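hey all, quick one before standup. I had two proteins in the batch that finished overnight and I want to keep them in one place so we stop losing track of which output belongs to which input. First protein below, input sequence then structure tokens straight from the run.
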Amino acid sequence: MAGAGEDSRALFGAGVRAALEAWPALQIAVENGFGGVHSQEKAEWLGGAVEEYFFRNADLELGEVEDFLGELMTNEFDTVVEDGSLPQVSQQLQTMFHHFQRGDGAALKEMASHITQRKYKVRATAVATARETDEDDVDSMEEMEVTDTNDGAATDGVCPQPASSGPDSQTIKEEDIVEDGWTIVRRKK
């Protein structure tokens, strides 16, 4: 029976690694070195840390898993995950852990296989934005354009800017831009 428990534990570990490797937020953080020069090692360590977290805390709520993953991403990769994927990954991990607790190795294998097959190839490219200030400004803005590809189909992950609502739309006057780059927002009269 101990062999079956160890097999199930190994399957859970493989499922955790598959879920994390398929997570676009983590892929982008590793690919762009958000965790420093050891980003890849941190990503590998993350799998073991998440696995150990579940083993030490058998009755976790979904919110606790989300908080733990979010904290790890913030601390290790200096990344705040706001794309809505955190609850999805947390749910996947929690479901796999429930299969592990029941000893359902077949469901663990199937889930890990399914996650691996759905894995997106994510590529992030830096896009410099035009500014009215000096190009050498240390505080220059940079946006990340994220492109998901699945089976060769590419979709642009950048949200379009809202269109102006006409002549009554708010305009920013030069005196409203403070020296440190902040913009003063005034109430419409």
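OK second protein, same deal, sequence then tokens:
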Amino acid sequence: MDEHFDRAPGSGRIRNPPAGSGLGVLSGDCDNTAVFFNQREPLRQPRTSLTFNENDCSAAKSAVPEDFSRGSISQQSANASSSFASRQSHDVDSIVKSSNLSATAPEFVPAGTNQCEDHNLYYDSESYYGEPTLADMVTEFLGHLSCSPGSFESDIDYITGVINSWVTTEELLKELVELIYTQSTAIPNFAYTGARLCNYLSHHLTISPPSGNFRQLLLKRCRIEFEQRDIAVRGDPETQKKLHSFVLFLGELYLNLEVKSGKGLPNRADILLSALNDLMNSLFNHPVDENLICAVKLLKLTGSVLDDAWKESGKPHMEQLIQRIETILLDATCSRGVRQMLLKLVELRSSDWGRVHDAAAASHATPDNDPNYFMNEPTFYTEDGTPFTAADPEYAEKYQEILVKQDYFHDVHGENGHEVYDDSEDEMEPEIEEAFKTFCLESERNRKQ
């Protein structure tokens, strides 16, 4: 028992032991018993089936007694496996001996492969990816500013320094202008940041070739798109979308691009002022929904600044634009949503573009001379859900009615202003009072015990 005690768990077990006298033949011989347990049937079928020669199988059956053949199925399988492995090894040796291959043969190159290819290119990362270009660098900078517009102030000096080290020729400057213009009109919501970038570069780029500096080349590029406005407003949706992006970028450029004057104070580019007026007239000449939406966005963005500039120069351009909008509201077949946008725009202009007056003017404001007089007043609702504000003529009456119904004037004060409390509500009902007394008595009794 001690001799076989350290065998592995489960060793010597047979999942399907053969019935009959097979085990009796092996039980008397210790060596045969050990061989039988070590060469037991596997727990699962092999992945590949073993092929046996029928002659070999018949010879084995005639040479071995019937009882022994039934008891040693697994041993026969093991012998067959070893014989099959030996035959396979013999076949491999014969193939190796008859082969014409040599370990010293030259390297095999498949047909169609360029043998002149520089394989060192794959190990040198810089040479593999090539040198970065101006387009790659500017696109990376613009993508960063688009994702993190709040980092403009902290990163613009570094970006400008890198661009100054790259842009050293007139061709590179033109490429830079084209890249910034393309990205500013292609990336959604990047027009504002792109206009700020253009303004900063126009004052801090060191290169100034004879063909023009950065600002002059940028305005020339904008002029190319501006001259195609009458065709673009009637073009396909993609062409119209491109024009609308340009219009909004030009509006941001007018608000952010500063031109130094001889007096030292920066001014806005007057050439953009007249260009914006012509663009809006072109949009109103073809009053489809997309063109009207673009015009509304532009006027909401620049309306107050354009109105002030035209008033200073004595030009009635803003009045003319508002008249055109009113005409479109009467005649054009625009959608209901666009019609509401145009009405809100006319209302916004009538309130001086929503600007708040200074403190001196606000102190003399009345409901008659200030349309924003009731802007910050709260909105109340009647019992039936009707809203009303301080601008309502019946405001005082409705407000008093709400106060009365909500019992805001509950009589809790006496004649002299002293509060008079009514403690009748503090009395307990008889049933609750009786239960409370019982609870107190039981608590006292438990405490004494």
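Flagging for whoever picks this up: The mean pLDDT is 74. The two ends are 72 Å apart (CA to CA).
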